[in-house]
Amino acid sequence: MTRNIIAILRGIRPEDVEAHVDVLVAAGITTIEVPLNSPEPFDSIGRLIARFAGRAMIGAGTVLEVADVRRLAEMGAAIVVSPNCDPAVIAATRAAGMESWPGVFTPTECFAALKAGATGLKFFPATLIGPAGIAAVRAVLPKGTPLYAVGGAGADNFPEWIRAGATGFGIGTALYRPGQSVEATAAAAAKIVSAYDAALAAAQD
């Protein structure tokens, strides 16, 4: 089962990344983002691409520059996530055949991102716009636009976001904090997946 969850491994180190992603993939979370403000992020991303090719979608977060998009494309990354809406970054990402998930907050940013070719929209920080805000923006967006809530969405409130129109989630500290054990990551992943599956099943009833 493919789940619309992006694991955000901010702060992870290259020597730790494979073990943590092993347990994430085993739990059913197969889209992995290593933010570029993590220690030696390209090293981590390269290791993950080599190890999980065909089993997980690997890419970078906090991507702010076209030069970084080019480097990721050359490595074979599959997804580029940004905290902002930069049409040049989006266009370069899509031209390279990767998925583009820019950060948006307003209808203006949403439509600019879509015009530039964004795969989907990352509402960040979602905690500030809330489910009601996403529901309002959803009403004016093209039908079927993928919307991910990032920041403030988690196991305790997935149903509320899904009812508002969120189609997926980016999960950071609820899954991983720098220095935590692999066992802690496995337990967090199991909790997130269980809550997500239950919320999605309830929404489809």
From TrEMBL:
GO terms for molecular function: lyase activity. The keyword Phosphoprotein does not apply. Transmembrane segments: none annotated. PROSITE patterns: ALDOLASE_KDPG_KHG_2. Belongs to the KHG/KDPG aldolase family. PANTHER family: 2-DEHYDRO-3-DEOXY-6-PHOSPHOGALACTONATE ALDOLASE-RELATED, 2-KETO-3-DEOXY-6-PHOSPHOGLUCONATE ALDOLASE. This is 2-dehydro-3-deoxy-6-phosphogalactonate aldolase. It comes from Ectorhizobium quercum. The lineage of its organism: Bacteria, Pseudomonadati, Pseudomonadota, Alphaproteobacteria, Hyphomicrobiales.
